Amino acid sequence: MSPPCYVSRHVRARSARPQAPEQLLNPAPVWDRWADDVRPDRSPIATVNALDIHAPAEAIWAQLVRAEAWPDFYENARKVVVHGPSAPDLAEDVVFTWVTFGLPVRTVVEVFEPPHALSWRGQEPYGRAVHTWQITPIEGGCRVTTEEVQAGLVPWLARWYLRPGLLRWHQRWLEGLASRA
Three-state DSSP class for 154? Predict the structure, then answer.
């Protein structure tokens, strides 16, 4: 298998105060806890998106873990149901089901470290994925970096179609978070 092509996007969120826009088109991956079966260097799809958000980590985290509210600001998340006592919020080891990219997915939270690190894994017959979020304090707010790695037959076959879609939709997700935080 050829190594994955990292495609990433970073733009600074707009704020009420005028600021010169800062745009980086290739943010570096920040997640370093990949399982062997979804390592970016061994998977057909690996993406990175980042956005500087002028809000405290706690405000961003609150919106990110309120999974059942994602459809209010992220159109690619539908029918989100958190199963367990933490509902409507995510928590460590919680299972949530949802529809994304038109596919039903059962997902399990693997890393839950408020308010800085979150990851979940989806495993279906057509493939597996790990989606990570890192919230890093910076001057004036936080940099939110989201990375996703997908592996399996369908991701391998559809990598040229899926990779650009992931980048586009994850950027919208980040922008939605910025608008709510």
Answer: helix
Task: Single out the residue of 147, 124, 146, 117 nearest to residue 57, CA to CA.
Answer: 117
Locate the domains of the chain by residue range.
52-180
How large is the greatest C-alpha to C-alpha distance in the chain, in angstroms?
A: 48
Contact 168, 175 (CB under 8 A): no
pLDDT in tens, 64-75: 999 999 999 999
Instruction: Tell me the CA end-to-end span of the chain in Å, nearest whole number.
Output: 40
% residues pLDDT > 90 (the chain): 80
> Distance of alpha carbon 165 from its chain centroid, rounded?
13
Query: What confidence tens digit (pLDDT) does each residue in 44-59 have?
Result: 999 999 999 999 999 9
Angle (CA) 130-132-138 rounded to 5° is 165
Could you give the CA distance from residue 73 to residue 124 in angstroms, rounded to a whole number?
26
Q: Write the CATH number of the domain with boundaries 52-180.
A: 3.30.530.20
